[in-house]
Amino acid sequence: MKAGPDSDLAELGFLDAKETLALAAAGLRRVADLLMWLPRRYEDRRSFDAFPAQPGGPAVCIRGKVIDASKRHFGGSRGFYEILVEDQNGGVFGSSTVSCRWFNMPFIHRMILAGHEVILHGKPKDSNGKLVIDHPEFEIVRDDDQGPSIHLERIVPIYRNISGIAQRRLREIQHRLLQEIEPATLAASFDVDPTYPRHEAFREVHFPDAVEQAAAARRRFALEEFFALQLNVVWRRARVLDHQGRVLGRKTTLLKRFYENLPFDLTGAQKRSIKEILADLREARPMNRLLQGDVGSGKTFVAMAAMLLAVDSGCQAALMAPTQILAEQHYLTFKKWLEPLGVRVLLRTAAKEESSHTPIEGEPQILIGTHALLYDKVAFSDLGLVVIDEQHKFGVSQRSRLIEQGTMPDVLVMTATPIPRTLTMTIYGDLDVSVLDERPAGRGKMITALRSAAKQSDITKFVKEQLKAGRQAYLVYPLVEESDSLKAESATEAFAKWRKRLPGREVGMIHGKLPAEEKEEVMRRFRDGEIHALVATSVIEVGVDVPNANLMILHHAERFGLAQLHQLRGRIGRGEHKSYCILLTDGKSSEAMEKLAVMEKTADGFVIAEEDLRLRGPGDVLGTLQSGLGDLKFADFLADTILLREARALADEVIAADPSLTRTHASLRPLIHDEAPAASRRD
Ligand code: ADP
Ligand code: MG
């Protein structure tokens, strides 16, 4: 009987006990494990590179004969093994010989000897005027390789090493495995590409006849990975649509009066988003929409419009903010614009409950709060719309918890975290998306400058000038208090110094360790202009809106992540005045400098997000967002946009055909991860 993907490697019959042990030590026990041990790269051994004539450049793959080999020493005891390899073509295109060296590899001299014909892969470099390749990967050509072979005269897979199994042997094992396995057993429970049998893709990823074949095979496997992700996304979305929501937004009286009172025109993007929201609200199915807009793009006003529509339909609307400061600020903004319209706004946070200056009569129509809202059973009597600000700070389960407070309310999620489109489709793929891609008019210019080793007297002078002109400043530090392990000035230390540096000015301080009441008080005084310069940590990162503040000095800027720097900088440039963001650093690492240079170069959140991904990789950038993404072996979020769309279309088809995955596609049900009940069924 032929083997299948679940067959035990030990039972295949062509591996000896030592080999099975070596494979098991690398975590490979079943046939599928080994098949998924993919080539790290390929060598096209139908034609080799010319022998290198000069150092530098990419790795070369050459074939030649070892004409000399010896153990050598550098003065002391440090030994190395050196071989001289000659080009059998006589060096027609390059030089005719090259030296290869291995250090600290005591057995190498028994493996590779004068007279051997070898294939080498490595980077040529210069060593005291001599051209050498140090520690090349090598394979010895055998006499029996003449004629057809899996090791020569073809594109050859090179695998990540498995201790105890030579590259050559591993290649033989993979090749044999592909012959032993019954092709039909490799079929997936859902075939993302019926025109390209899966077993063929396995053969072609290991032993391609052409470079394009390997690429096509990888593409097929990447599509499978994306499909599994998108199936979950579409599944979640379908679960929300299972519910009957209510129709809101028929009446727009309040919205019209709100527009009339605004001192500015909404941007085109704001108007478009409100229209999209209105259309959703008027549908019976619950709205599930993401409002994506860079810092300062005016998301709050879109939220306000949406919430007014809910209120006008006779139900409550709630806004959930990630921090106390933000909830407080939203509350003030809402009160300012909505109380004149007769709308009852209530702030509800863990720290305090405040109704408004005059106690509100009757039920609150708009509730603003932090996550404390989640645990508040009494607050809501008739929740029709939930707005979640800065969604990325909340877990999916928190979102669903709030949703459960209402009878399937409409949901609007807002985020300023600019993430590439492909990621949006995955992380927020169950949501419809509105984008605020337009900055409100009348904003002053923003200047960002990177300064290493700037003089404190110059900085102080600049801050003084701006304050004298009537502006306000943020002085940001990475730490609250002194730390033994991190050598960086803390906000607490700096606070005392700034008070001395700015005589006659009110200097405030805010950080996460202050009691909530004190934080609010400091923010209020800063907003009202009573505090001129605010020493702060990254607590001000999200959403804080004081248009008169036009200067931010970021101390030890290298300690902040790119996304965080962008959020912090978004606190300024909100008014008509010219703004300055000064990034101070004493860090000298090129990585840190590259990161900060991005900030100097662009203010575009999407560009910054992509740079961030490039510099740090998706794992770090996405943090908790990442959890739904799993381990992708083949797929590349940044590069494979088209493939991701293809996967989405397939997932849409599957769920449309079998929404509950119980009939034609029941075999796909195990692909669904239920631990994220974005909208758990309430039936
Ligand atoms: P976001 O939450 O997207 O960062 P906000 O909603 O806090 O942005 O708005 C940022 C600032 O821009 C606020 O001071 C707000 O009053 C102002 N603003 C919003 N929309 C407009 C507009 N259409 N025209 C002028 N100013 C606006
Ligand atoms: Mg905001």
Folded structure, characterized:
The protein has about 675 residues and is of the alpha/beta class. It folds into 4 domains: about 80 residues, no CATH class; about 100 residues, OB fold (Dihydrolipoamide Acetyltransferase, E2P), CATH 2.40.50; about 180 residues, 3-Layer(aba) Sandwich (Rossmann fold); about 160 residues, Rossmann fold (3-Layer(aba) Sandwich). Helix 11 links the parallel strand 15 and strand 16. Helix 5 crosses helix 6, helix 8 runs parallel beside helix 9 and helix 17 packs antiparallel against helix 18. Magnesium ion (MG) binds next to helix 9. The site of magnesium ion (MG) has 4 residues, from helix 9.
Task: Based on the coordinates given, report the CATH architecture of the largest domain.
Answer: 3-Layer(aba) Sandwich
* Structural class by secondary-structure content: alpha/beta
Q: What name goes with the CATH superfamily of the largest domain?
A: P-loop containing nucleotide triphosphate hydrolases
- Quaternary organization: single chain
What spatial order of strands do you see in the largest sheet?
Answer: 13-12-14-11-15-16-10-17
> Beta-strand percentage?
15-25%
CATH topology of the largest domain: Rossmann fold
Number of helices: 20
Number of strands: 23
For the record, the CATH class of the largest domain is Alpha Beta
Shape: flat
